[in-house]
Amino acid sequence: MFVGHYAAALAAKAVQPKAPLWTYVLGAQLIDVAWGVLVLAGVEKLSFDRALPGSPLVLSYMPFTHSLPAALLWAVAAGLVAALVLKLPRAAALAIGLVVFSHWALDFLVHRADLPLWFGGPKVGLGWWNYPVPEQALEVGLLAVAVSAWSWRRGRQGHGGWGGPMFVGLLAVMQLVNILAPPTGGAPQMAVSALSAYCLAALFAWLMDQGERRVG
Fold it and tell me: Which of 6, 36, 63, 165 could form a disulfide with 191 if both were Cys (CB 3.0 to 4.6 A apart)?
């Protein structure tokens, strides 16, 4: 799951628009941002098996980011930061926390059995990665529904221009790169590439927020 995670961000922005878009976009991938940092630090582990269908990732050790209790803790922490540091309304902070936790729920659909149910516990995952066409259809379908809801909300708020279509185009390009250019090199290169993509999406969302604030 890659671009599908951003479906949760756009859907949340449509339902609870008082939080900035960048908070939802960053929240959708917060668990993977932490994962990338911990991979670079040598704490969490991954390797590659090019013979696997779909994703070649073998995610052998990631209890601090992708276990169920860790995902809940990241979600609660994000919600608290949104409420106490960013001073967002409670409903918006709750929505950000739910977006963060949605990462684990969506990963459960596509990952192979590599998501620990608790620290050191059994690992789960429905394994849609093994079926690349249905998995990609799932991601695109989720994103299409979320984009429709987000676009409707933007229209109701009077936000037009090219910002929205350009952001969706950016997500589409990143997904195509993810499909057509599978990861090469080792774990550090994979982590850096992933972190770069997440930061790019969050930066674009922040720029959209700034532009719409000036117009508003």
Answer: 36
Domain ranges of the chain: 5-209
Q: What is the mean pLDDT of residues 188-209?
A: 94
Query: Is a pLDDT exceeding 90 seen at residue 156?
Result: no
Instruction: Give the mean pLDDT of the chain.
Output: 93
Residue with structure tokens 């960048």? 22
3-state secondary structure of 60: strand
Amino acid (1-letter code) at residue 205: A
pLDDT at 90 over 60: yes
Indicate the pLDDT class of residue 15, thresholds 50, 70 and 90.
very high
Q: What's CA 2's distance to the chain center, in Å?
A: 7
What are 23's two structure tokens?
């908070």
| Amino acid at site 48 | F
Phi/psi at 121 (5° precision):
-90, -175
In this prediction, residue 215 carries a pLDDT of 59
- Rounded CA-CA distance 127/99 in Å is 22
Alpha carbon separation from 39 to 34, 60, 74, 145, 212 (Å, rounded): 9, 11, 17, 32, 36
Q: Per the structure block, which two tokens stand in for 176?
A: 């195509």
15 conformational bin, left if phi > 0, alpha if psi -120 to 50, beta if neither: alpha
Distance CA 110, CA 103 (A): 11
Half-sphere exposure of 13 (CA within 13 A, CB side): 32
Please name the residues in contact with 125: beta carbons below 8 A apart, sequence gap of 6 or more.
107, 108, 110, 111, 112, 113, 114, 115
